[in-house]
Structures are given as structure tokens and as C-alpha cells.
Amino acid sequence: MARLADYFVVVGYDLDKRGGSDGQGRILQRFPEKDWEDNPFPQGIELFCQPSGWQLVPERLPPSYFVAVLTDINSERHYCACFTFWEEVDSTQKSLHSEVDEDDDSGSAQPEQLFAPRSLVLVSRLDHSEVFRNCLGLIYTVHIDGVNVPLETLIGNLLTCLIPIAGGSQRTITLGAGDRQVIQTPISDSLPVSSCSVAVLFRQLGIINVLYLFCAALTEHKILFLSSSYQRLSDACRALLAIMFPLKYSFTYVPILPGKLLEVLSTPTPFIIGVNSFFRSETQELLDVVIADLDGGTVTIPECVHISLLPDPLLHQTQTALSMVLDPELEVADHAFPPASTQPSTLKIQDKEIRAVFLLLFAHLFRGYRWCLHIIRIHPEPVIRFHKAAFLGKRALSEDDFLMKVLDGMAFAGFVSERGPPYRPIDLFDELVGNEVERIRLEEGDNHKMMNHVKELAEQLFKNENPYPAVAMHKVQRPKESSHLQSRHTSFPHLDEVTVQLFIDHAAAKQKTAPPIVKAEMKRMVPSGPPLGDAVDRNGSVLANSARRLEVVRNCITYIFENKMLEAKKLMPAVLRALKGRAARLCLTQELNLHVLQNRAVLDDQQFDYVVRMMNCTLQDCSHMDEHGIAAALLPLVTAFCRKLGAGITQFAYSCVQEHMVWTNMQFWEAMFYSDVQNHIRALYLEDQKQDGSEEHGALEIASEQRRLWPTLSKDKQQELVQKEESTVFSQAIHYANRMSYLLLPLDTSKNRLLRGSALGDVESVSNSYVTNSIAGSMAESYDTESGFEDAESSDVANSVVRFINRFVDKVCNESGVTNEHLKALHAMIPDIVQMHIETLDAVHRESKRLPPIQKPKLLRPTLLLGEELMMEGMRVHLMPDGREETSGALGGPPLLPAEGAIFLTTYRLIFKGTPIDPLVGEQVVTRSFPVASLIKEKKISVNLPMDQFIQEGLQLRSSTFQLMKIAFDEEVASDLAELFRKHMHKLRYPQHVHGTFAFTVGQSAKMAVEQKGKDKNPSLKTLSKNLVKSAKKTIGRQYVTRKKYTPPTWEQRSSLQSEMDEDEISVSEEVDQTSLTLSSTIKSSDRQTMSSVVERACCRDYQRLGLGTLSNSLTRSKNEPFRISTVNRMYTVCRSYPGLLIVPQSIPDSTIQRISRCYRQSRFPVVCWRSSRTKAVLLRSGGLHGKGVVGFFKSPNAPSAGSSQADSTSLEQEKYLQAVVSSMPSYSDTGARNTLSGFTSAHMSSSDSTDKLRQPKIGALMKQVMGSREDVPGTFSRGGQRARVASLSQPRASENDQDSPRGKWGSIRGTGRLSTYNADVGNRLSGKESPQANGGPSETHFLRPQRAYLYIIGDKSQLKGAKQDSFQQWEVVPIEVFDVRQVKASFKKLMKACMPSSVVVDPDTTFYRCLQESEWMCLLHKVLQVSVLVVELLDSGSSIMVSLEDGWDITTQVVSLVQLLSDPYYRTFDGFRLLVEKEWLSFGHRFSHRGAQTLASQNSGFTPVFLQFLDCVHQIHLQFPMEFEFSQYYLKFLAYHYVSNRFRTFLLDSDYERIELGVMYEEKGEKKSQQVKSVWDYIDRLNKKTPIFFNFMFAPEDGEVLKPYSYISNLKVWDFYTEETLSEGPSYDWELVQGKQEQTEEGDRPDTAAPTSQRRIVWPCYDRRSKVVPDAITKLLQELQGLEMELGQVSEKWKDTWDKIKATQRSESKLESRGSLSSSLLMSSNLSHHRRTQGVYLKDSMVGSAINLSLDSEGSSSSAPTGGMSGRPSTSTLYSQFQSTESENRSFEGILYKKGALLKPWKQRWFVLDKTKHQLRYYETRQDKECKGVIDLAEVESVVPGTPTIGAPKNIDEKAFFDLKTTKRVYNFCAQDSGNAQLWMDNVQSCLSDA
Prior knowledge:
67 helices; seven-stranded antiparallel β-sheet; alpha+beta
């Protein structure tokens, strides 16, 4: 029973305290005046009576009523029912009032009447809002209407009224004024009472909004209601609490907040508060509050607040159910015949239906929660904990944000402590969760069933609030209508306290004498509901649970314990994959359990290793929460499995599985502890009940039974049980302190692994890394407080572990009621436990170090080159897979990587050698290596090894030979060793000086001796080089003299590109005295002979070949040659980076050259490097012009003279120089000294020179492409009335009859080739039309034909801006856009990343082709090739070219070399290519050292592969013209590899000058006898003699062939040098290593020959070298031949001789061969080359003729236009005579025909093929047959006519199916299958004949 009302209070306006606009209220009277003992009087009631503030109003307002809620300090709610009415303020008070107010409103008119509010307040702990309204209303009525009942009686009765709290009884009460009320109490007091407030809330806000509020309240957000009605605010707040049932809101709850207390809204804790909309503006700046406006129906959620909503299917179900309750018409709104009544229920019922929906929702959310309760104490009071992780895991909701927050919230904690106890009264929710889970599950999909359930529950809820719905006999007087508006009211009287107190005392006395009311509490066991099954994981991991995987896990464990280690090893990878699935992990823990006997399982080393590995893998995928209980299941196992290390020393598995987050998670340990305690306490009570045989009871059932019996036990018995339980908990706490120290103390306590990670147990830092974050406890604290220890490190670990365990013990012991003495004892014990454990660990650690490592594969030694030495012994590493998929098994086949082995650093290479980890390929050897000098980028990485879950430090090394090594150091490699390795590697990569590179250091010890002898033998060479250098130093001036000998000249060290781009700062410091520099004066007579060695340099040999002058010629200065070899640079004084001997025009003296050189960058003045033997046009190269040079060179006529006269004279000399070049050309001298227009026309328009006419339009188009859009073309405008010159060459008319084929050939015409690109020009040329001018000028008819320039200067567009052209000059500038070296560098980096991605590509934007495109490497190749082809075109048309780009040593070199390669077949041979590279790249000073960053000085400049780009271009040309090159693709790859490898000295240093200075240039000859080959060329020569690896068997050159490759990107291919790799032996470019290997393996294989071996073998693209395993036919035959010769004991002939013999016999054979037969010989030059020459484009089925022959070569054989008639035909078939017929040949029509044999032979069925292209009818035995049985040449066919059947013809065939074919020799009889078929054959043959 409880009092209906605790206090009655009268509150009035406080006139005395009025100040300003706000008044105050004060309590006028309160009854009883003394506080009740059980219920003190709540403070601050006067604020809540007028929440908007106390104010006087000018007119009387109607009385108002609302209920406010106050919460006291014990979180008890007090309901304050406030009834407020207004009373006049009488005149005395008013005058007082006006005096107070005089100062502020003296001027304002006072209203004559003011009304003050007065409130009657009832304070109660019961929420009977309507009853309070009636009671207060009655008191007011008695007062207003003057009813004859004393108010004291009413109040006395009200305060003494007692009613039951719950139980469904009804009580009638009266206050003694003739009134009667029936109060019904709810049946269950745990269910909230809502009347219709929930339904109203949904009407106000709508479904979605209320759901948002509901989720916000559950996830602890702040919620604020706004409304202008106070009653509505209370109702809304009450409704929100009602739908949260069974959870109770435990934060601030103020349904009506007074305006004065608004600052409460900025509290940091969650709340539900209601505020009058009057204060709306004050709520605007609240940033983290969800605001619900009840009047407007809106819910506002601020941006920074994220509300987690219900998990998905539930949310949708709830919304559906709510809409069916609130709007039942929605479902049938579209029905054609809607049912008659679908009205929603009445508000009261609807309210209950909505609550029923939420009740079902909670039953669904919390189903099975009782199975996750841990009961840790039963007596004296139950202590219960909830195992959150297990609940989420079983429900597969561990990812769900909403549920996580709810379970972590305060409300749920209250729910567990209130509903956890197993023996208590139960309510509707318990029944739902206990008994109706299955029903709820079945109703999930069926809305109607669900609605039925909702209605049932609603009924129960309604009944709970209204147990006796029929009885409602209220009789309460109300005031008469409008009585509150009467003009005169007596004010509310002062009540007599004594009278009221008498009532109260009287009632109290009566209550004391009355017998106590005993209400039987209905306690019973709470049903638990069905246990939680394992829900299938979200992603439906049925696959993970497949029985096969579990089988694998079981088998593997069985193998391990049966000691079948090999079997286990093979299964291991599959097991580790299977352990990703939860079922497999659980299976593992169960299986391992079977092998534990009496808590111990001793294993041997290998078993131990495997078991630990599986445990680690299992734990690796567990989250830190361990929601599936896997870590929990493993916890007893890690302390069971162990191995013996030595006498009395045992290592347990826990020391190897510490690196997991879960061990540092406090919640995990608590859950584990509680679960163990529960088991022990259950066991405790089960022992007592053994005799009942009640074994099967769960802990909750036992607890429930014990709670039932508790009151019946004696005090002693009770005390005994409490003690037993307490000591059980205590012993478990000690056990856990031990367990935790096992898992938290690292094996090597000195290493202090814990401090590496985050603070221990810092739950937020849940990462997936396995670096133990072991222990929390603020680390900062540990550093500050414990820094005084001597042994700081290990004590730190110990302290943090002790602190962590202490925190744990405190928490669990306090919760589970361990006595203080015990707790103290524990705290004393823990440090000892930890210390003891550290000592045992030290012993274990010592012993485990001595263990031999688990059979790691033994390290394989790499084979080294002669003179290559190991810098460091091999370090054990893992080679990890990178982004290339072939090696990792992603493209099929077993994964070759990761591999385990060692990395070796030698003086030359970085080598990894090892074996794959995958046991299926374990016997293969994996080698990956690259030269140290080619290392480009090295970065530290951390790698997660696949087998052990440790993160190792590693390195990622990229090399410019397109190799990537990702290595992870094994744990046995100390980190300082790894650091040392890096340092050594850097030293080798960037030596101080070029002398430190491998090419010099190789075989050092041997070399010293050689040098000693060398000195005496050949003094002249050394002295020559010394003298050269000395004199150079003299002349250059002081700046170099002070340098130490080996420092390269200063400009070498300027690494920034900027300064190279600016004007060159190096100019010769003074005019050099001519006389001191003649050759004779510098070189002593004794050394004269050595000059010949200079002459032998590549350049001179080539100049002599090209007829550009000989040395003797240049010295005697014979005048008839246009060019001479100048020795002006013999001391390298004019230009450091040029060779000593240069070709210059005969007429230019050396002094001029010295002056001119200053105008060019790096003093690289124009020199001739090649001359066309046919047109005598020359190719010159130079650096770009300086700024001042340009102005001087092309001075515009009206510009002021540029500076001093010296500048003028220089520019004049420059013009003179160029004029001398032009004059040297024969075409120029033919037309007279000055080339007039008429001379030009006569020379160049004559029909004899028609080759040039045809050539020109192409050049125009090419130029247009190379030079860019038309604005960029330098049109020059008239000076002195002469016409402008236009750079693009247009096409002269070419009449159709002189279509002589131009020389040279284009790449093979594929699909669209040149034809499409030069469409306009080719088309115009063929039709003889005018070609419009390429640069958009007027067409030729209005415009004089521009003459062709004799010299084109290819220059950089950016340099040539503003240059004016002189119309009289014979040269012309072609400005082109070239790329910068920086672009090459950047592009190369991206190309490397594309070809060798460091990790597997997932993002579609980073696929290989996308990255290749972004690298723009192909664009750069395209540009270089395009410019080169343009230059070739111009040279071929007879113009000379000067290439003058950048500094003249990068792009210039590329273009000049490619031009020579394309124009001159000599350079496409071995000797020629060598000469080309030596001349253009080495002698002309391409900066190999600088661009390749070979030394420390050039380290910053970065790697720029200009030479590689050139080789790639050659590779592209090679692909398009495979028969024009003597060398193979492998030769190019070989150079590409060794130009960065530093194995040879060839590509070291930046110029001849530096090579001479270091004495590298001539020493090769002196040291020929030494073992070491120093030049890459010598090496290639030696190798070429031994093996045909560099030779191109398709080589069949044609004299004077000029190549013109396609340069479009679509025609270019990615060079396989960038992508291929040979893991079996490493790169094949160090031939000795690869060959050595081959021999070894062959020897090793021999003994096995007795066993039958299969001939087949698998070839892996990334593992084997294909050319070796599957050699081409010719190589294979040569190898077999050699083998046979060896067997016969003959001296084997050199392969080249054999090849030459075969070719010679082949040629003679092919001459004898008859024309028609099909040659089956090797594809040799004479045949294949012929085909490649006549490039016919055959247009099938065209009416023009059998072939349009666009022949592009100069052989006369088939270049004439095709003529009709018989005679022309055979030539078409000869084209094909040399081909084998294959499937892919041209078949125009085919089918089965019967053919009558020759005389007396029968009819036979044959397969006939009509071939229009070869002009033949062939027949075969069957369709599949490859061998042709016979050929009928259509050239001999005269007619085809219908025939008649003859004897022996096939039966049953229509007569019309026969036809005859008459040839000049005989008549063939044929028979088709039917007449239609015959007609088809006849038509087809006929059309062939007419086409021909």
C-alpha cells in the first residue's frame, strides 16, 4: 500500500520579492509540515508550478492543470500535479506593488486590475494523473462555488488515502464532499502505464520520426521536446519511456523544464527534457541535441549527431507493423472492392497495439539473452554478468552498430541487474522471450499473423491498465460554467494546519494498530527460451563451414600427432586457408582438446611448431572481442601444449601466441573469468545434489532453486554457503592472475615488446597488427613513476603487467563480493607471480635460443662470375610476391613466391636464391638478381609473412633492369645486420668515383700485377694520354688545374638541369694561341706513332668508309674533297664532350670553328656525322644555340644590331659555316653557285628525278605532324618584295604515267597502315590532283612553287621563337617540340611501376595498360621515331639535315643514331651497330655516368635512360623489319642490361676526354691478354663465335635499303625486356652463369637415365627461359649437330660456318627448283625476302584486276602496272610458290566434287579448293588433308561448260550436276552433289577467269 498523495502545497505569487519583469512564487502553505521519513519534501516546487515564470496578467485566465516530474537524489520520481487559477491582486497589495515599481514604470499607465496565479500542488510517487486532476478540481470547486465542506477535511482525507501500488485491484475513494472515485491499479507494476500517450505521440510526429527518437534514446543521445502545452510535453516524455520497455531510462528525465533552469540543456550527459516552445530561440544553438517539435511534427537531428538505426530487416518489419496499426487502410487502399470497415482502433487500444509492436521488437532483439548470462554469486544476493561478445557472436551481429551501443548502454546494464536473477516475479516480456521466440520467428514474413500477435499482446497490455473496464463510476463535482470568470472571487483562504495534522495523525495511529498486509509475491523460475543457435555469418559463409574443410583440418591434426610430418606439411596451406572460416576454427579447438591428457600434452619440436602455427592462424582472424569464443576455447590449450627444451625446462604454447589483440582486451578476460567462476559454482551445488541425479541443470536453474530454498536455511548454513562461494571466486582470481601473466609477459622480457605497441588494453586501438599491444595502464604513467629502476626495461614490462592484472582483479573481485582481506592478499601475490614467471621465462628463452631452428631450407650459394666477390654472407630472407601475377599463382599454377632463401650482396650483383614456400613446388630453385649499379629505388617496408603472423621489416628494391625484389628479413637476421646490408649496398651503388665500379674493381688483386708489367711493355700509350690531358689542362685555364686528379670537370657536378638549360657557363677563358696547339708540338716524335691509335677509333674508321676524308688527307689539306678531318679538338679544348677528330667543311679554318663553338650549348658546334652515298646529303649534329646565338644567326633585318661587332662576326662565320655545308652538296654545285629559281626548277623538276617528286608530299605531311599545328610553322614574309619561304614542302604535279616507285620501304601494311595516315597525299598523288598546302597556305596555282632547302635545321621550337628567315639562305629551320630529359625520367619511373607493380592491382584504374598509358613512354618513343623518319625522308630526298636539339647529347644523339640506322644498312650489322654506338654515343659524349647516376656525384640527378629509349626504338624497328638486322632482339636486350650493369667499362664516364684522363681509352689493347673482358663488344664477339644467341636467322638484307617504320603508338609494342623474367636462373645476360648452370644440371640428371623418363615437361613463362627450353628450329638443329659431332669425336665446326654452308646450298637449290612446286626448304633469304619486298595489297573480288600492286621497292620484277591477258598471270603465282600451303591460306570457294580420273581411272570424291589469289583449283583427299593431291592452274583453263555423265559416274545424281573444265592440256570431268551446286562452281570458276 502507498499514500495516494504525500504532500499538498499551496503556492502563490510573491509580491514582496518582485523586481524587474520576472516575479517569483513562494510556498504559502504545505501539508504535512513535517517531512515523511521515507519521502522527504522535494525542493523547488515553486519553479515547476509556473515553468514559464511567475507573472501578473491583466485579465483572468481559465484554470490550468499539468503534471511535472521531479527526480530525487535516489532517482525516485515524484509526480507534481499542478492546478493553477488566477486571483485578483487586492488594492493594498497593488499599492505596495506600484510603490515598488515607481522608479521603472512611472510613466506607463497601470491597468486597473491585475491577476496573480495561485497553484494547488499534489506531490505523489504514484502516477495517477486523472485522479489528481479530479481531486484538485474538487478542492477548487468547493472553494469557488462555496460548497459547505471545510477544505481542511478534503485535504486531510486526500493525504491519508492509502491505495495499493499494483495487483489489479480497485479502490473507491472519497474526499468527503459527496464525491466518489474508483482507482484501478495496474496488474503488474513493471509494465508502464501509458493511457493513450503513445498513440498521440505517433499522431504528432509520424512513424519515422518517432523511430529516430526511439533509437536516439536507446543509444544515449540528448532529446528535447518542444510544445506550447505542458500536458503534451509530459505525455510525450511518458510515451517515449513506455515504448522503451523493458529497458528503463536512467539519465536526466525532466518532462517540463522551467525557463529559469534552461542551462541544464548544456549538460554533457544524455537526457529527455521538455521545454515550452516559448523558449524555442534559446534552444537554437544546441549543437548535439535532437529536437522534436510536437506542435509542428518535426524532428531535427544536428549534422554532428549520428543516430544508429535498428538493424535492417528489423527496421523494415517494425515500420510495416506500425503503419498497419496506425493506418490499416493503407494496405487495401488500392483494392477495387475495399472491405467495409478498416478504421483504426480507438486511441486507447491503438496505443497498446503500438506498444505491442515495440515489445515484439525487443523480444526479437534480446532473444536468447539469458543464455549469455554468467551467474557468479548466488548467495547472499545473486550477482549476474552479461557476456556481450558471445551474444553478438551467436547472433552474428558483431558488426551491428545499434545493438553494440544498446548493449554498452546504462539502460541495458539496468536490464541485466533487474531481469538477470533467475528466481523472481515474471511479466509479459519474460514470457515472450521465454516461450514465444519460435512463434515470433515464424511470423517474420507473415504480416497478418504478426498483426494477430500484436492484437493479443495489446489486449494484455490494455487489461493490465484497466483490469475492470466495466466499473467506472466517477462522481466528482465540477465548478459551474464560467464561474472562474465571475468578477469577485474571494481569494483562496489560509487553511488551518492543526485540523489537517489531526487527520494525518489519526490515520497514522490507525495504520499502526492495523495488521500488516502480506501480499504473496509470485516468484518463480524465469524461463530462458530456446538456446541461441549459431546464426550463419552475414555473408552466408556456408562455404566456410563445408565439411571438406573441416575434414582437412581434422586430417592435418591427426597427421601431426601421428608424426606424419610430410603429409601435414602438404596439408598446411589448405588448413591455414580453411581456418578463415569460423567452423574450422571451432573444429580445431575441439580436435586439439582430444589430444590433451590430464591438462598436459608434450610434443616434439616440429609438432609443437605446427600446432603453434595453427593456433596463431586461428587467433589472427579473431577480433579483439572474441565473439565466437575461439580465443576462450584456446586459452586452456595454450597452457597444455608444450615441448621439453632441456633438463626440467618446458616451453608452453602460450609463449608463442602472445602477439594477438585479444589478450590485451580487459572485457575478454572478465568474460572468461566469469564463465569459469559460473562453472565452478555450478559444480559446487551439483556436488550436493549428486544423489538426486540432477546432472543436467544449467547454472541459472540451479541458482533459481537455491534462491527458492535460501529463506528456509539456517543462519549457519547460509553463512557456510556464502563462504564457499567466496573462496571459489578467490581461487579463480589467483588462477587468472597466473594465466594473464602467461599471456602478457613476452618470452624475451628484455626485448620489451609490449612497449612497442599502444598502451595495453586500450580497447579503442583495435588494429589488426600482431605487434602485441599487450598491456594497458597508461604508459606515460609507467615511464614517469617507475623510471627509478636500475633494470628499467624488464621492470617496465613487469610493472605494466602487474598494473593490468591489478586492475582486472580489483574490478572482478569487487563485483563478485570477495572480502577485503582476500583482495589484499591477492594484491600482495600478483607481483610475486609475475616475477616468478619472468624467471622461468628467462630460462625458457635461453634454451629456446639454443634450439636448432626448425628445418629451414639450407641456404643455396649463387654461382659468381670470375672476379665477382661476395661483400656479405647470405642473409636469410623471404622473397615476397609483388604485383606481377604470374609468380604468385594468380594466373594458375602453384605460387613460386613467396620463397624462402638468402640474399647475397656481391661486388657486382644483388642475388636472391631460395626455394618456394609452397610445398608443391618446393624442389624448384628461385633466383632473382640484378646488378647493384642498376638499383634505382630502395625503401623500407614491413611485410606480413604468410606462414607466421609476425610482421617483419623488409626492403623493396627496384632496378632499372626491370626487376623488383620485395624481401622480408627472417627473424634470425638482426636489425643492425640488415642496416649494414643497406649501407654496403649504397656504397656499391654510388661509389665515390668511377674507379669504384665493378668494371674497375673486378679481380683487383690480379689486376695490380698486370698493370706493373703493362707499364714497361707499352709506355707510349700511357704517356700519350698523360700528355693529352696535361696540355688540355694548360689550355683550359686555371679553374681545372687545382682539382685533384680524379675529380671530373666542374660541369659534371652540376646536377640541376636548370643550369644546363641556361647559357653554358663554360667558355674557353682566353683566345688560345694557335701555334701551341699543332699536333706535332704537343706530341713528342717518339709518340707520333701512337696517333694512329687515335685514328683507329671508331669515328675515323667510319669516316673513311663514308668517304668523308682520311687523316692523311686532312693533314695535307687536299682541296678537292668537300670535307676534312679536323684536329682542332685533339686536346679537347674546343669542346670537352666531342671526340678528338671531327669532320668539318674543307673551307672552314680551325680558328673559325673555335669562335663558332661558343654560340652553341656546351660548345657543341655542328659537325658532320654521316653522308648519304646516293644523294651525298650529309647529316650534322650540334648542341642547341645559345640565346645570343639565335639572334645573331637569324637576324631580322630591321632589328638593331645585336650587341658588339664580335657578335656580328660570329654570326657571319656561322652563316659561312652553314653555306660551306650547303656548297659541299653535289646538287647545289650543279645548279651554279647561287641557286636561282630557274636553276632549281630545271634541276629538280626534270622527269629523271621523279623520285623526289613523289617523296615530297610525304615530307610535308610528316613535317606537319612533327611540327604541330599550323600556327607553329614559321612562315617567313617578304623582305624587299621577294616572296616568303614556307617550310612545308608541297607536292609538284606528278603525271600518272611516271609513277616510278620511290626508294625505301615502309613497315608491313597491316590493316590500316601508311595508307590511312597519308591518305590525302597518296590519293592525290595517284589521281594526279594538286595537294593543298600542308600549312594551309594558298594552293599552288596562285603561288610560285617553293624551292626545297638544301639544309634543314631541326631545332627546338622554344629556342627558335622570333627567329626570322632569310629568303636567300639555302637552309631552313624546322622547329619541333621535343621532350625534356625530366620527362624521360618521370616517364621511366611510371613505366617501371606499370611493369613491376609492388602489390597486386585491385583498383581498375591501375591496371597494366592504364599505367602504361599514363607513363607516356610509348608517346616518347613515337616522338623520337617520328622525328627520325622525317629526317630520313629529307635526307633521302637529297637535303642535308642538321639536328640541333637541347645540349646535343641526349635527344640529338637518339635522332642522329636512328637516322643512320634507318638510312644505312651497314649499321644494321654487328660491326655497324657497334660502330654507331661507339661513334654517336660514346665519342660524341652522351653522359652515361651522369644519366645513369653511376657515382655519388651524380646520385641526385636521378636515373634517366636515354640510351634505353634508343634501344627500345631500335627494337620497334626490328619488329617491323625482321629481315633487315643481322642481330637478334636478344642482342638489344643484352645491351640494355649491360649498359646499366657496370660489368664492362664501355658505358662508363661521360666523354672521350674523361676516358683518356682515366687511361681507359687505350688500355684495352695493352691488356688484351688479361682474362677479364673489359669491353662489352669484345664479349659479344667472343660469345657470338660460340653460340648463335645474338644472330638473327631471318637476316636477308637488301642493298641500299632505307627503312621507314610506322611510328604510331598503335604500331608500337611493349618491349618484352620490360616484362619477362626467368626465376629459374635469374637474368640470362651474364652468359657464363647461365651456361654453367646448364652443364651442372645435365651432369646431375645423368644417373637417373635407367628409369623411364617422360619427354614432356612443363614450361612456365615466368620461371623457365623459353629460348633455352623450347629453342627455335634452327638453333635446335645446330645444337643437335654439335652434339652428334661430339659423340663421333669430331672437332665441332663453328655454328656460323655451318649456317653459311647451308645458306649457300639453299641458294643454289632454289635456283634449280621448278616454278610451280611448293618448296619445303628452310625459310631462307632468297624466298622470304622476295615476299617481303613486293608488298602487294590484294583487293579480293574487285573488278579492277587480280591484284593492285603497290610495290614499294626498286626491283623492277613486278613493279609495272598489272596488265591484262595471259602473259601477266604467272607472275602472281610465283609470289606464293615458296610457301607451304596451310590452313590459313586464301580459300575463295570450296566443297566436295566427284572427279573422273585420267584414262581408264574411276570417279573419285575429292575436296576442291578454288583459290582466286593464287589463281588455282586445288584438290585434296579429304577436307582435313594438308597434302595437296593436285593443282589445276587457272591460267591454262580455256572454258568451263555443263557436261554429261560418263561410264562409272556416281548413281542417283541429276544430269545437270555434271560439268567439264577444258585446259590447254586436257579436259577434266566433274560431278557436284546437285544441279544448284554445279551451277555455283561454274559461276565461281568463270568469275575467276574473267577477273584475270
